[in-house]
Amino acid sequence: MLFVRDGIENVRVLVLPDGVAADGRCAALSRAALVTWHSSLEGMVHQVYVNGCLAGATLDAEQRHLVVHSPSSFQSAVHIEVIAVEPKDARMDFAEELERPAAGGGRVRLVLLRSQTLPIRATANIHSNHGAGQIDYTEPLNPAPIAVWPCPQDKAGFGMAQFGEGDFGYDSAASVGFGKGGFGNGSFGLDADAVEWVSPPLALGRYRFGIRIADARGNESPASETGTITIIPAARPAAGLEVAAFDPQTYQLTLNLLD
Predict the structure, then answer these.
(1) CATH number of the domain enclosing 23
(2) Does residue 120 share a domain with residue 198?
(3) Cβ of 223: how many Cβ atoms within 10 Å?
(4) Is residue 246 part of a domain?
């Protein structure tokens, strides 16, 4: 057992101000943050990871807080995770074994293996169910068809490249070589490389995607569909807080979020 996630809950992050003015405004240029949590685990120390990178570890098994530095971003939330490890592993970095937070939250990245059996002028169209129900094949998500072979030299096979546009004597000179792509998915001696597509920001929902390949005449292949992918867009962080009102009788403080 290298690290444990179960038993850790109520993780909270509070930005620590560098200074507070008389009117309640604060400066937080250092981006220091206090991370607190509850843990039922005994005899273990805790590590804190910020955006998938080790930010620090507790000094003993009783400590349930740690000050870390977080990146400044007004476009996506900062991902903070707390795990428990044996005291002897307190300084060991488990970043490679943790699931990395997705970059550009609310987006999906699809990878299509580009087999040499696909025709030279093949194009791909990507469809979705828009977050619920069945996949809509009437209108693709991509604004224009995606060229499977944007570079003619990538297409292998004698006579399959555009004459005069490949390297001298080699039609497949620029195609993915053996051991460089998806092993076992390409023709003999040539691996299959990949075409990647990243979606625009998506709303909350349970998405399914379908990909269809079309040849130069418009004939489409049967759809290849993904499983269900749950999208939960990251909350857009507030640019700051300001004091709107304070009631000294009830000690109630009202704050405004700044965009």
Answers:
(1) 2.60.40
(2) yes
(3) 14
(4) no
pLDDT averaged over the chain?
A: 79
For residue 92, is it within any domain? yes
58 and 91 in one domain? yes
Q: How far is CA 17 from CA 20, 61, 150, 196, in A?
A: 7, 27, 51, 42
pLDDT > 80? residue 131:
yes
- Please give the residue range of the domain that contains residue 141: 106-232
**Which residues, other chains included, contact 84 with Cβ-Cβ below 8 Å and sequence gap of 6+?**
3, 4, 5, 7, 8, 39, 41, 44, 45, 46, 47
Residue 168 has pLDDT above 50, yes or no: no
Check: CB of residue 130 under 8 Å from CB of residue 136: yes
- 156 or 144, higher pLDDT: 144
Within a 10 A sphere around the Cβ of 187, how many other Cβ atoms? 14
Q: Is 127 helix (H, G, I), strand (E, B) or coil?
A: strand
Q: Using alpha carbons only, what angle is made at residue 243 by residues 240 and 248, rounded to the nearest 5 degrees? A: 155
Better-predicted residue by pLDDT, 172 or 16: 16
- The number of residues in the chain equals 259
Alpha-carbon gap, residue 148 to 130, rounded angstroms: 24
How far apart (Å, rounded) are the C-alpha atoms in residues 59 and 69?
17
